[in-house]
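User: Run a structure prediction on this.
Assistant: Running it now.
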Amino acid sequence: MRRRLLALLAPLSLLALAQSGDYYPLKTGLRWTYSNGEVQEVSATRTINGRSVAVLTHSTGGKVTQEDYLAQAREGLLLHGSQAGDKLTWYEQPLLVYPAAPLYPGARWSTTTRAGDGSSVSLAARVLGSEGVVTPAGRFNAFVVRTTVVTSSGGSSLTDSYFVAAVGTVRFVTQDGSTVDLVERK
């Protein structure tokens, strides 16, 4: 259950290209390293289940733990599915991870979909405001985005993401108060 929730939240840390160009950066080769040891890298574009998607690879200790399948659309950044190990989770309708650029304080969005196994996932988010944040990667003025994910199996999570346009997510704070900071972006 916890692993599935983490899999759903992982794409929040990297964002795809929006209509305004690099607002949500997703160029092949971009790489984010976080203080928890996770490295996220845009590794390729592939066609999966008939959809052209950007592949965001998550790894820890040099081992790939998950791939997320993202795409840009008129409405914003969409998550079509994820793969962890041999298990592919594909959504009947993609989840809206972020709306079309630009973000602004007070913005809200939500989406619900079903996975191929019949379970449902709901995501609701809002921009709480903006805040200065200092991480090992530098000083940033970030939008604070609160995201709640709920699954039909009863799992739920709440995460505050600190998003910077053209950079990506520079900090995560989970509901238990754990903080994960951006260490480096290449």
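The chain has one domain: 2-185.
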